[in-house]
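Issue: copy button drops trailing tokens. Both records pasted manually instead:
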Amino acid sequence: MSDDNNSDNSNWDEDTLEKTSIVQSDTFKVRLAQAGEAPPCLVFLVGPANMIGKQWELKDANVILGRSETAHINIRDASISKSHAKFVVSGTEVTITDLQSTNKTVVNGKIIPSLQPIALSNNDQIKTGNAIFKFLEKGNIETVSAAETFGRGLTDPLTGINNKGAFENKAAESFRKSELLGAEMCILTFDIDHFKKVNDTYGHSAGDYVLKELVRLVNDTQIRENDFFARTGGEEFTLLLLESSLNEAKEVAERLRLKIERHEFRFQETIIPITISVGLSCKTDEDRDWKSVFDRADVALYKSKESGRNQVNFV
């Protein structure tokens, strides 16, 4: 009897191992195929924590790295010159040239001479001011892994949309571009009304369903090409509206509120009534950073809550 049991377990293990091997092999083939399409790139290694792992693809013939808003690779650090270094892509070769930067450009521990192109090799480390990057050549499988890791760090695991960190990065970038180009920018933030009651009444599985269904609804019907949607708290979401006037932003906010109020959130044959409270604010000439715009939107959100919920307010 015991011998038969051992034999069955052995066969099961072999089958399992074989299946696991096939899955891993197929996954690896996919990753290799993705890597084959990957252009040369830079991966951020040392600098602001929220940028660690970020990638910049080197697709264009000339790519400028610097502190300037017009730089292709924009790093907001005082140690980096406005136009610090240039990457030139020619066929399979990529070179880097220091553009007479104040704090120099260092490749693999050696300062490179200004205005002299230096060919890069796979895994070269590049230091510009206080920022350090790694160069990955075209087709490097690490490009795929690094992109996936960085992407997970900026994605809300439950809903699959951008998380608070991703929003803060995008908001800061958008505010700087708005300042530079004179473009309009509005922030819309909203909470699900009485979400704790949803969890207490229907259970946390129902609460998770409501969050995911709301995100699906917003993504499918409300997000425009230039908008940026993120989950910035437990039941709080934020829309960054780029190149939108105040009137356009108000229309988006009211349309969103009405869409969610009218939607049928059905969980296990039970319809859960869902509404949202919305706060809205737009950038003004007096604003010095994105946080001041967000703070006003937050004030407007609480005004909506205090005034009875399921409404839009603007500050």
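Record 2 (pasted manually too):
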Amino acid sequence: MTRHPLDQVERQPHTCIWEITRRCNLHCLHCGNTCGEPSARELTREKAREVARDLVRLGCREVDVTGGEPLLHPHWDGLCRDFAALGLRTALITNGTLLDDERLERALDAGVAAFGISLDGLQATHDGIRVRPGQVPSPWRQTVAAIERSLARVETIVITAISRRNLAELPALRDHLANMGVKRWQVQLVVPLGRALEAAEPLVIAPSDLELLTAFLVDARASGKTPTIDVTDTIGYFTERETRLRGSPERPALWIGCQAGIRAVAITYDGRVRGCSMLPPEFDAGDVHDESFATIWNDVERFAYSTHFDAANLAGPCSHCRVGPLCRAGCTTMAYWTTGSIYTNPFCLHRVRGGCA
């Protein structure tokens, strides 16, 4: 049997998603961590340095600092400085409402190489999703100002979580970003966890919406106009559009399975280690309060859902899909939160079209 491509690569945590706090100033409808108040188990700066040193020794190249809202952590810039000093490319993922001139200057001085700023639609849509308690300024206005401020100084990626509320608005949002001068736009699906499960109306798009969404993304990417679009793991897979969705005519790309626990890792706001930040506690590999990150990462059995993925366990339509053993049921997080299993996933365009029958 041919070995899967992910079984042939050197296992290293190249990218780390690091939630430094659970504290947040917004009440977003799709928040997976139901953020608000900080956790008493958030890491000290010294413990974070220790973990970061392990990450570097194990081959990590980039850390994406997030939360909660990371700018509410009392030592956010010190942590970024520590990461950058160790040689990690440090990106800061923020809702943008607190990114004023003073914090931007502090971030750049700390070595932050890029910002990811969340914008989930035009003003009414965004403010209806990223809710701020009380009668205070529009989060959208503050976030747009932060994007404009950041664009002038450092690489800035706008991040949009696609939901039923903003799906039809994506073309207008793309035009707005282009007019702002945004160069990169990252899109991902809202996953049904956390507050998204508590919403009064469904937030997660229907699998049938993938046809229209994918057509828009492929056409927008093919136009050659900015912003360029980065399509994340929740969207795809294995139709004639796949290589244009993830790559380009010059450099075709193909989905080859989830890399959580193989080339990517996450550290939660309370010190737990997972392959992906959105996986549930059942997938925790360990806690850096109790043992070193290196000990956790080097125990490959703790990430067996990725490192020992068994295609024989594929279920439902994925079990008789011709590309199932390569695809591995798409995004592990989306598969789990929609079905309770990592071995079947309704959010697959190939499956929506009946290609797995």
